Every structure is written in structure tokens, then in C-alpha cells.
Amino acid sequence: MPPTRPSSAEIPDALDSDLGWTLGVVFRSYVRTANALVSHLPGGPRGYQVLAAAAQGLPGGQGALAQRLGVDKTVMTYLLDDLEKAGLVERRPDPADRRNKRVVATERGRATWTDTQTRLEHAEDHVLAPLDPADRSVFRELLRKLAAQANSLDPVHDTCRLVEELASDVPAKPRRSPRG
């Protein structure tokens, strides 16, 4: 009987200990699933984040929300317009400063957020399936601490600018000649 080959998961790989590679693999796995689950929302993942913030009653006005989520203020305006048209959020005057607008989830928005949150939890469970429940909890807490520290050292105030900066760091691919 021929020897059985170990599965690729059992074969150690030099990349297995590379933080960037491992984070990237887990991130891509989660993003693929999460994007599919929030694609029904205006703005997709960004729309979901705005809806989650509004449904949970995060304090602050529209500008503060844009800064917290790292969304350009102009982009946030269009995103909120689309979420309002869908009946998911409303802009209301801030009682503390009527010049500011608070973003508040509608009843439909809260129900949509609850349903989407439940589906995202199942997606998270799928991605974290190799970990037992206690390890999942520890992993989430450690990841939260890392994210808070990283954000305090280098906060993202404008994700659009960040994407442009990252894209400018990527070397251009050589163009193929028409013959090649």
C-alpha cells in the first residue's frame, strides 16, 4: 500500500509564520464572505458600518461618524443619502448642537442590522472554525487590543486617501507590447 501524503494543512510552510501572509489569508477569507452578506446594503461594507453605528446609537454627528469610520465627508454624505433613500437611517438635528446632524437608524434599519449582524456572526464562526470557543474569545480580545493600539498610533481618517496612498506604493505592472 503506497504511503499517504499529508494534507497541505499538515505541511509546514515558510509563510505559516509570516504575520502579513497569515493575516492576509484570514482577512481575505472573511472579506469574501462578509462582502457577499452586506452587498444588499447601499454602500456594501461601508453602508453596513454606518448602519451598525446608527443602530447601536453611537454618539456624535455625521462628521464625527465619518472620521471614526475613516470615510471622507463627501463620500459619507452620498452614503447617507443612499441609506436614507433605502429607509434604513435618518438624519436628525443633534439636541446638543442643532447645526450638527445625528445619524439614527430607522426601525427598518435596526431590523436589517440585526439580521445582517446575525449572518455575519455565522460567517465569523466559519472563518474561526478551527478555534474552540474559548480560543475564539481570546483571539477576538487580542485582535481588538491590536487594532486599538494600531489605530491610536496611526489613525485612519480617510480610507479613500489611504487606498490612494497604498495604490501609489504599488509598482506599475509593465505593459505588454501588442505583439507579446
TrEMBL record:
SUPFAM superfamilies: Winged helix' DNA-binding domain. Coiled coil: none annotated. It comes from Streptosporangium oxazolinicum. InterPro entries: HTH_MarR-typ, MarR/SlyA-like, WH-like_DNA-bd_sf, WH_DNA-bd_sf. It holds the Pfam family MarR_2. Residues 16-148 form the HTH marR-type domain. This is HTH marR-type domain-containing protein.
